Amino acid sequence: MTPDIVTIFKALSGGYVPVEAILTRREVHRKVFSGLERSVVHSTLGMNELAMAAGLATLAVLEEEDLIANAARLGERFLILSGLRGLREKYEMMRDVRGKGLMVEIEFGPPKSLKLKAAWTALERAQEGLFAQMIVMRLMREHRLLT
C-alpha cells in the first residue's frame, strides 16, 4: 500500500540545517498544486535556499552511495553478529527482536517466572515503561548506544 502523503524533516539535510518536505503521489500533487495561485505552501521554516541545497545534497548521497541498501545489509549483519535474536531464550522478558536497516526494536513483556514477574509488575506499577527506560539508560551509560 502506498501512502498519499509522507512528511519528512530534520534528517533530510543530513543534520546540518532545519529542512522539511512532503512527498505525495502524483495525482495528489496535481490536485493540491493545480495552478500558480496554489503553488505557495505554508512552512514553519520559510523560504530557505540553504536548507533546500542541503536536502538535495543529502538525497544525492543517499542515491549515489546506495545508503539504503547498505543500511539493510549492516542491520541484518548487526542482528546476526550481536546475537540479539538469540537472547530471547536467555531473557524471558524479551518477546521479540526486529529490525529494518539499522533500526532495531527489542520488544519486552512480562516474564513467566513468579520471582521476575513480581519485580516487573512493581516497576510497571511505579511507572509504565520504567523497565524499558532502565534498559535504555544502561545501554547509553555502559555501551554508548543511543536508543
Helix content estimate: 40-55%
Total individual domains? 2
Whole-number average pLDDT?
84
User: Quick one: biggest sheet?
Assistant: 2 strands, antiparallel
The number of strands is: 4
Q: What does this 3D model show about the protein?
A:
The structure is a single chain. With 147 residues, the chain is of the alpha+beta class. It has two domains: 61 residues, no CATH class; 61 residues, no CATH class. Helix content is 48%, strand content 16%. It is built from six helices and four strands, in the order E-E-H-H-H-H-E-E-H-H. Strands 1-2 form a two-stranded antiparallel sheet. A two-stranded antiparallel ribbon has the order 3-4. The chain is elongated, with a radius of gyration of 22 Å.
What is shown here, in short?
The chain is of the alpha+beta class. It contains six helices and four strands; from the N terminus they run ββααααββαα.
